[in-house]
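2024-03-11 09:14:02 DEBUG pipeline.ingest accepted 1 chain
2024-03-11 09:14:02 DEBUG pipeline.ingest length=213
2024-03-11 09:14:03 DEBUG pipeline.predict start
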Amino acid sequence: MNILHIDCSPRRESHSRRLSAAIVEKLLTMVPEAHVSRRDLGREPIPHTGAAYAAALATPASLSAAGRTADAVLPSEKLIGEVERADAIVIGTPMNNFTVPSVMKAWIDQILRVGRTIDSTPAGKVGMLEDRPVFVAIASGGVFMGDRANQPDFLTPYLTAAFGCIGLRSVHYLPLQATAFIDEARAAELRRSLVSAIQPEMAGLFAAQRITS
């Protein structure tokens, strides 16, 4: 069992980091032998795609297996490989200006690739990756979900669409909201509640995976 753990906050002790760590910890209690791979986009951001990458994707060779070895797509290939090797993905991210931070957008731009993770058909985009659970821990200073929502949410619909177009449809959101107005004791209580609420789905997903593996 391989878990890919990604964090996007630049802060060492952010709410999203603590929540994503709590999710990984819970997964490890369920699958103690699991291996955790780390990618810290907040502290070690990846470069945004440049002209060479755009040119590579504009040529037919980029859509073939041989195109994977082109220098311009090697960073993308490495990131896609991390996703492919993961049985589960855990992402911790703040909500920045109603959506994902730019470091996460840079990662998404590298893993969404026509001919590699996306098949472009007359009927639309079709994911080429096998589905696997994705747990997204979101920290927001305001409230964007539920009856008390007072700001837009472009983060969850965007990630649902982005992950869905590469085949990742089992996306689960754990929103830790109103962090600007709570202390650490309350944040810890909310983290426990969020992780506890998702535990039955974790168990079901991994039970199904063991049956099919």
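2024-03-11 09:14:41 DEBUG pipeline.report The domain at 2-212 is CATH 3.40.50.360 (Rossmann fold).
2024-03-11 09:14:41 DEBUG pipeline.predict end
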